[in-house]
Design brief:
Length: 291
């Protein structure tokens, strides 16, 4: 049996065909390079590490420092932000009026002496308001006056040769406890320590005079209504001062001990009286007419 053999064919390239195809290789290379450059950017992939944050901040700071001063105000640091305003304190209550805590009676002269020390029967009158009023009112701030309620009979020994108050005494009309009265007297000594009697009109060299100082609780107001009254009274002071209005009214007259008056009304510690033949009317402190 005969065996078939496949024929083997060998082809040799022609001289012009035995060369590499550079055009095809160039196209493939260009396409690959383009894809390599564009793909990371399109995909958002960073093939190299980013610069450290400190360096970026340093570059930013340098840029801000290099900017001109007029280019804009820098943003203030957080520490420079003003703190939130605090709530305003509640409105404080108004201070207590002096007249709401203290009432000063009329000056009562109990005795007087001449330069030789001889006592006189008639002492006349003295106008001490410019020296005494503010100083007595200041007793409201005395520690002993805190919470006190009652009357202090404040006695003053006036020496016009020395032009000052030389002694102090708490009179029999005082109704305050001894400790309170003593404390108030000490405060009075301090207040009157700088007082001078120089320039005040006077007849004799020495006088003993008293003020009734009434201490009240805050809010204890004097009554506003006048109570009608009738009757007669006799002036018991050396000189009784008549005022146009109770307590703080202008002085309209001074009447001497023994003068008879007609009582027509009352307002707290003051009495409205007719004090002369013309029927002139005014207000007098109660103790001046023995009330």
């Amino acid at each position: 049996m005969a065996t078939s053999k496949a024929s083997l064919k060998v082809e040799l390239p022609k001289p012009g065909e035995d060369k590499p195809r550079f055009s095809r290789v160039g196209i493939i290379t260009a396409v690959g390079f383009g894809l390599g450059v564009l793909w990371p950017r399109l995909a958002g992939v960073h093939l190299v590490p980013s610069a450290p944050a400190e360096e970026v901040a340093g570059v930013s700071s340098a840029a801000e420092e290099a900017a001109p001063a007029g280019s804009g105000d820098p943003t203030p640091p957080a520490a420079a932000v003003a703190p939130a305003p605090t709530a305003e304190p509640a409105t404080k209550p108004p201070p207590t009026d002096v007249s709401d805590r203290l009432e000063i009676g009329e000056l009562q002269i109990t005795s007087c002496r001449d330069a030789e020390g001889h006592r006189k029967n008639e002492c006349g009158s003295l106008d001490l308001e410019s020296v005494t009023k503010a100083r007595i009112q200041s007793l409201v701030t005395c520690p002993a006056a805190e919470g006190a309620e009652g009357t202090l009979s404040l006695g003053l020994e006036l020496d016009f040769k020395k032009n000052k108050v030389v002694d102090y005494v708490s009179g029999k009309s005082t109704t305050l406890p001894d400790s309170t009265a003593n404390g108030l007297m000490e405060c009075a000594k301090k207040e009157f320590g700088s007082a001078t009697l120089e320039g005040l009109e006077h007849t004799y060299s020495q006088y003993t005079a008293f003020y009734l100082v009434k201490l009240k609780q805050p809010g204890e107001k004097a009554g506003a209504d006048v109570t009608e009254a009738s009757g007669h009274a006799t002036v018991s002071w050396e000189v009784a001062i008549i005022r146009a209005e109770a307590k703080d009214g202008a002085i309209v007259a001074r009447i001497l001990r023994g003068t008879r008056v007609v009582v027509t009304g009352r307002k707290d510690d003051w009495y409205r009286v007719k004090y002369d033949a013309k029927g002139s009317e005014g207000w007098v402190f109660k103790t001046a007419i023995g009330m």
